[in-house]
């Protein structure tokens, strides 16, 4: 897995133009059953890929924390939201709360998330490949294929399965 993760930025770069063309066409004319196809591809990929052998998203990018995430996680630590923010978060260029540093503070050496049950919504949903109206997040996916081996494989499968 680590070899694939190390190679992923290059693989993604090599596929960038092809992926961009594909996503542009997908956005213009998404197949009627796209939500169903994405669900299927996502489930198949995550039967093969075990996130516990990877954790590259937790190691290299942090999630956004919504106000609800902050309240829930602060409560978990018995902190006030303001204390949690001060200890762990910062405001980024887009005015969102993000982690002060990566790898994520809550990631263990065994790749387990120590706040798994209360983790941010963005972590629960990453890499967003089973999202409804997937064609609307193609810009995000173009970036995610360089981070997430599962997203990379799903996009490759999409190009094989969806003829545009
Ligand atoms: S979501 Fe993707 S990047 Fe994150 S751990 Fe799973 S396979 Fe790795
Ligand atoms: S909160 Fe948990 S799932 Fe989210 S980035 Fe940190 S370790 Fe990963």
TrEMBL record:
Protein name, entry field: Uncharacterized protein
């Amino acid at each position: 897995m680590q070899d694939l993760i190390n190679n992923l930025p290059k693989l993604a770069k090599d596929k960038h133009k092809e992926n961009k063309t594909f996503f542009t066409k997908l956005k213009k004319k998404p197949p009627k059953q796209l939500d169903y196809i994405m669900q299927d591809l996502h489930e198949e990929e995550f039967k093969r890929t075990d996130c516990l052998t990877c954790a590259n998203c937790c190691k290299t990018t942090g999630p956004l924390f919504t106000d609800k995430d902050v309240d829930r996680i602060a409560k978990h630590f018995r902190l006030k939201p303001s204390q949690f923010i001060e200890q762990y978060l910062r405001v980024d260029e887009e005015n969102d709360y993000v982690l002060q540093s990566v790898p994520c503070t809550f990631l263990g050496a065994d790749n387990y998330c120590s706040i798994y049950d209360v983790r941010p919504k963005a972590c629960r949903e990453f890499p967003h490949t089973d999202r409804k109206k997937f064609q609307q997040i193609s810009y995000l996916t173009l970036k995610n294929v360089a981070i997430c081996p599962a997203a990379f494989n799903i996009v490759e499968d999409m190009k094989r399965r969806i003829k545009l």
